[in-house]
Amino acid sequence: MIEFKNVSKTYPNGTKALKDVSLKINDGDFVFIVGSSGAGKSTLIKMLLREEVASSGSVVVNGFDLNKMKRRRIPAFRRSLGVVFQDFRLIPNMSVYDNVAFAMRVTNASSRDIRKRVPYILNLVGLPNKAKVMPSQLSGGEQQRVALARALVNNPQLIIADEPTGNIDPELSYQIVDLLNEINKCGTTIVMVTHEHDLVYQFDRRVITIDNGMVVSDTDWEV
Fold first, then answer.
1. Cβ–Cβ under 8 Å, residues 162 and 196
2. Which value, in Å, is the radius of gyration of the alpha carbons in the chain?
């Protein structure tokens, strides 16, 4: 579960990125967060990842109170999340298999579990024959699927997708969101930040709109 209560964020330069934001996202939800550039989406994501802390108000994610969290607890918290970025963030000198396996190795997963889990996840995202391929040999859409596999491999309660379709073409964008949709049906909570309103219109899901640091609507699109 995610809960923001009266959250404001003011940066040292005086920029008020979020202004009294309150919202609640329940386990198993699929939520789009939309808004123009500079609306506050990036700050909200940084708070969800505990890269930024609220100036006032409270943020609770997966049972962790992020404002009160001690620094040594941050890695454990982040392991409860899966994160997909716009720029993929794959390790260029590692194969597809090793990019996904790396996410398990940092949690001290056993070699046996890695050998069993990674092929399963690559098959899930439609890349069963790409395990030995290097990221530079993949298309943008395929790289984003690897990034999604890496986010999924530790079976997180929550996936945060930050503009995951920003660097791929519209048809592949639909496929990525459709894949997130299928993952959500298995019980994983999905929060996807996007500026692509046309894409959001194709999925009948909850939409939170942020403008000028405030939540201006929280509803489903009329489809």
1. no
2. 17
Q: Token pair for residue 45?
A: 């994501």
For the chain, the domains span 90-155
pLDDT tens digit string along 126-146?
A: 999 999 999 999 998 899 999
- 163 Rama sector, left if φ>0, alpha if ψ -120 to 50, beta otherwise: left
Cα(200)–Cα(174) distance, integer angstroms: 9
pLDDT digit string, tens, across residues 44-99: 999 999 999 999 999 999 889 999 999 999 988 988 899 998 888 899 999 999 99
Q: Residue 194: what are its φ and ψ, rounded to 5°? A: -155, 155
CA–centroid distance for 32 within its chain = 11
Q: Are 147 and 130 in contact (CB under 8 A)?
A: no
Report yes or no: 90 and 146 within 8 Å, Cβ to Cβ: yes
Of how many residues is the chain composed? Answer: 223
Tokens 């940084």 locate to 46
Q: Cβ distance 83 to 49 under 8 Å?
A: yes
How distant is the alpha carbon of residue 133 from its chain centre? 24
Contact 84, 144 (CB under 8 A): yes
φ, ψ at 87 (rounded to 5°): -95, 20
- The CA distance from 173 to 23, in Å, is 27
Token code pair at residue 35: 């808004």
